[in-house]
Amino acid sequence: MPKLKGWRRSQAATRRRAQREFLIVGPQSHSDDVPTGTVGTGYRHRVNQWPKSVLTGRQHKLVIPPEVPDKKFVLIVGDSHLRPFVDGVVPLPEGRMSFGFMSTPGACADGLRTEVVHAAVPRNPDLVIVMAPSNNLTTQGSLEKSSTDFAKLLSTAVGRWFKVIVYDFPPRLNHPLDHQELLRQEFRRVAARMGIRYVCPAADDFPLRRLKLWCRDSVHLSDDGGSPILGQRLWQAAYTELERGDPASVLSVQRRRSPPLSTVTPKVVVRGEVPAPQPSNPFEWTVCGKVHKNLSGNEVEDSAPCTQQLSTVGLRDCFVRLNPIHFSPHLLDAMEKISPSQLPNPVPQDDEMPRVEPRRTVVA
Predict the structure, then answer these.
(1) Residue 20 domain-assigned?
(2) Residues annotated as region Disordered (predicted)?
(3) I need a surface site. Which of 9, 68, 186, 256 has the fewest CB within 10 A?
(4) HSE of 263, CA atoms in CB hemisphere, 13 A
(5) DSSP secondary structure string, 193-243?
(6) Are strands 298-299 and 294-295 parallel, antiparallel or unpaired?
(7) In a domain, 180, yes or no
(8) Cα 296–chain centre separation
(9) How many domains does the chain have?
(10) Which domain holds residue 168?
């Protein structure tokens, strides 16, 4: 029997509905996201060869500015992102601050810690800025390993210098953005747990659509685009942190600890009877403070403390006759006539209570 036209329409509608239900929608990309592997278009100077460190086997350079009494000394510790500043290609604004650099290109958190331990810094800096190492993105270790190494780096820096902050690493174009965000959040949690300020650049400082901010390796910032912005943000972070207060006072507040609680219960031992204080005699003078009184015609000089009592003063004969009679006999006789004292009650009272008749309501 041939199928009807309505049956075929019903089957077609069922298939279309099934296709809509099983449609898989992929992740939507952010407007600022760029495909992995995008190449930057900015310019970067030719890399100068630095002497290699015997500790890490990588190129390492420490630059200390001359001491100026009116300027604060700020030391920045980081990886190859500091090359333009160390080589003097990109000038860093100074003002009331002079900047020194400790750069180890290609070093991760563990390598930076090794260089910090053995660094020969001639004087203590007023502020140390540790740039979060972005080279941990390419290491073989896990995220937990990077977190542990970064915590050791911060512990070493805080143990050697008294004021340390962390500045976030610039984003990369050749690495997945979600992985970079995970590492950035882990570094931020480590710094927050240790009580260290973690400074992040603004969202519009390094927009991923502006390829001129990166050089052709898509890792480092360009000399004519990204590095000047990074230098301004580092100067701003240092200026803001130094304006927070005196480093000595901040150190004393951070290292102040509450005294340990006492676990020993004190015991009270009472030996013998404790004599109770004698109550003061109301018929004796008690002088409090410096007063002047005339007692028996004699002037009392400035008294001693409040607890000192004066000697007992004898009473004179009063001019009022002391006797229990308060009324004259004539007045008592008149009162006896009005209210005899032999009666049981001064005023006779009726035993019965007065009756009050209820008010009648007249119905019209």
Answers:
(1) no
(2) 339-364
(3) 256
(4) 1
(5) HTT--EE---TTTS-TT-GGGB-TTSSSBPTTTHHHHHHHHHHHHHHHHHT
(6) antiparallel
(7) yes
(8) 70
(9) 1
(10) 61-246
